[in-house]
Amino acid sequence: MTPEELKKKAFSIIEKIDVSKKKDQVKNLEFESSNPSFWEDQENARKKMMELASIQKEIENVEMIDLLLEEEEYEEVEKVLKELEVYLYLSRPHDNYAAIVTIHAGQGGTDAMDWAEMLYRMYIRFFQRMGWTYEVIDENKGEEAGIKNVTLLVEGQYVYGKLRGEVGTHRLVRLSPFNSAHLRQTSFALVEVLPQIENAVEVIISEDDLEWEFYRASSHGGQNVQKVSSAVRLKHKPTGIIVTCQTERYQGQNREYALKLLRAKLWAKKEEDEAKIKQGLKGEYVPASWGNQIRSYVLHPYKMVKDLRTEVETSSPERVLDGELDEFIDAEMKEI
Prior knowledge:
The chain has nine helices and eleven strands. By secondary structure, the protein is an alpha+beta fold.
């Protein structure tokens, strides 16, 4: 890109970011944080401070571009512009929300459950690299190996915006470690990503519509066998949606997680219903369905990971499975 093209792109991005509006947001957040009662709700305060830090970083990057252009440091300008472009792609209403991520093993027995656990490990490595925090709120292990499903609550900057493109079916081709003939096996796992909806106005839940059931959390025995009914099964009677949470020792914590998961699923149903009305519009909600295959991971007879939507591919599946997802996620954000 020539210096003139770079300048043109820089001015276009800076105009879209609207720094004066960002500075107003900073003032408002700083004013909020100066209120003595601000830290009474620590979770909300922490999220507000993360939002403040993110906006301040955007403003710093814009100011840095002006300085780098003056000094004709065009390579550095390109790097900063790439970072700013990400903020533009992450401008949808829920992009800066925490996310609820669920991985389901598909048909295929132990191989599929092992594949679901491989994806689980891949995402945890990615979360760690991003500096995000996560909690497991529900998990069902396989009888022999792997997991049947796992649900995580993931928090950090722009978590939902960056992960929403991971929704869909992930396909693995490899030599099976679970059959004596060591035959080639194709396994599937479904990834579901929902925003953690905290605004009660967005999703209204009536207590009368809820049916609670409490039971002992599943265990593999030993000293950790649950002696109290801490696990939670929650049904939303009008829609028939059922969620479960059983990883915490305390029923109260599992109840709280179950409500968060239910609220997210009700939001997703609402989005899906609206999408049916607005069919064909780019960027609409895509439900997590087995028919929506998004990426193939091939370990045999050759090595490759290929995204079926963006055409991004690599011949190093080991790196991807170790959490190096940036190239895929960056391309997905531009597609959505």
